[in-house]
Write a structure and sequence with these properties.
This protein folds into 2 domains: 219 residues, Quinone Oxidoreductase, Chain A, domain 1 (Alpha-Beta Complex), CATH 3.90.180; 137 residues, NAD(P)-binding Rossmann-like Domain (Rossmann fold, 3-Layer(aba) Sandwich). It has 11 helices and 18 strands. Helix 4 crosses helix 10.
């Protein structure tokens, strides 16, 4: 099968032919339909996040179940499914307490070592060289996923489009849930990319009264305005803090979502908060990045800072699919570019240049 491989020598992907993987007990083999193009993969490509190489990236996938391992009874061959980037083990102390977004095995095995939960990868080259898996390693024609992370896609819902539910929308929903929004809240979304765009869609559905989108790209701001942002601010041309205060009767927002992963946008999120406001930090920053905060203001004005990493797969992915099926969330409106697997490197280079508005996806060609 074809796979886009990152060998660690340069921030690029190379298409290779590698053996098709086999699922083990509790796993499925997925024939990939589409895989989202995500900034988190880009952090790995740019060596801003430590990860074993060589590796197959791609963690936003949808597809059709090709094969099931022993003990799998929640899905069957032929089912159309979507997967989340956090693949819950289901039995660590966090998973059993309902905190799947903190799954210990996911972080210890997959994010540190590029394996599944028996400590082994399912991918390798013909010569036996193992290939690390970033989540399921979805930038390939086939991938292996724990069955606990496969969710059936309702009939009538486009299979390719829902691939972005697995990270972009999944992360946005987790951020919305962690923000504990109240009807009528005023919010800001800093960085109007794929995750920011999805946060705007969910915020509209949550009944907030004001959504202020902040970015440096007018085209991205125009796109999120079409999704429901009530106001937009280009931070290159405008004093963001002054403009947000002007739009909120001099007070600031109740919640600021930071969706880039940058110390400057983190500072902006705090600066535009009203007293008692909440900053929800969603963007993944390069390892070692440090943000600053005025501790006196944090205490005296009762500010809150919430870290938000994804969501809870077994409850939130079915909820996302219901929202899509009901037409409340429309992932296809966020997708603006489509590439083939052979164009995977081109897609990530465009992402690195900031050219992708919303989200791009890699679509796998039908296999003969």
């Amino acid at each position: 099968m074809k796979a886009a491989v990152f060998d660690g020598t340069s921030p690029s992907l190379t298409i290779e032919n590698i053996p098709r993987p086999e699922p083990r007990r509790g796993e499925i083999l997925l024939k990939v339909t589409a895989c989202g193009v995500c900034h988190t993969d880009l952090h790995v490509l740019k060596s801003e996040v430590k990860f074993p190489v060589p590796a197959v990236l791609g963690h936003e996938v949808s597809g059709v179940v090709e094969q099931t391992g022993e003990g799998v009874d929640n899905v069957a061959v032929g089912d159309r499914v979507v997967c989340s980037f956090i693949m819950p083990c289901g039995d660590c102390r966090h998973c059993v307490s309902g905190k799947e977004d903190l799954c210990e095995k996911f972080f210890a095995h997959n994010r540190l070592n590029g394996t599944l939960y028996d400590g082994e990868t399912r991918l390798g080259r013909d010569d036996g060289t193992p290939l690390a898996m970033y989540s399921m390693g979805g930038l390939a024609e086939y991938c292996v996923v724990p069955a606990s992370d496969a969710f059936k896609v309702p009939e009538g819902v486009g299979l390719g489009e829902v691939s972005i539910l697995g990270c972009s929308s999944f992360t946005a929903l987790g951020a919305i849930n962690n923000a504990e929004l109240v009807l009528g809240d005023r919010i800001a979304v800093i960085a109007a990319g794929g995750v920011g765009s999805s946060i705007v869609q969910f915020a509209v559905a949550s009944g907030v009264s004001q959504i202020i989108a902040i970015d440096i790209d007018d085209e991205k701001l125009k796109a999120v305005a079409a999704l429901g942002a009530t106001h937009t601010i280009n931070s290159r041309a405008t004093d963001v803090v002054a403009e947000v205060k002007a739009l909120t009767d001099g007070h600031g927002v109740d919640v600021a979502f930071e969706a880039l992963g940058n110390k400057h946008t983190f500072a902006t999120a705090l600066d535009i908060l009203d007293d008692g406001g909440r900053a929800v930090v969603v963007g993944i920053a390069p390892a070692g990045s440090v943000g600053e905060i005025d501790l006196a203001r944090l205490v005296r004005r009762k500010l809150e800072i919430h870290g938000s990493y994804g969501a809870k797969a077994r409850t939130d992915m079915p909820a996302l699919l219901r929202l899509v099926s009901g037409g409340i969330v429309e992932p296809e409106r966020v997708i603006t570019r489509r590439y083939t697997l052979d164009q995977a490197d081109e897609a990530y280079q465009a992402l690195a240049r900031g050219e992708i508005i919303g989200r791009a996806i890699i679509e796998m060609a039908p296999l003969e």
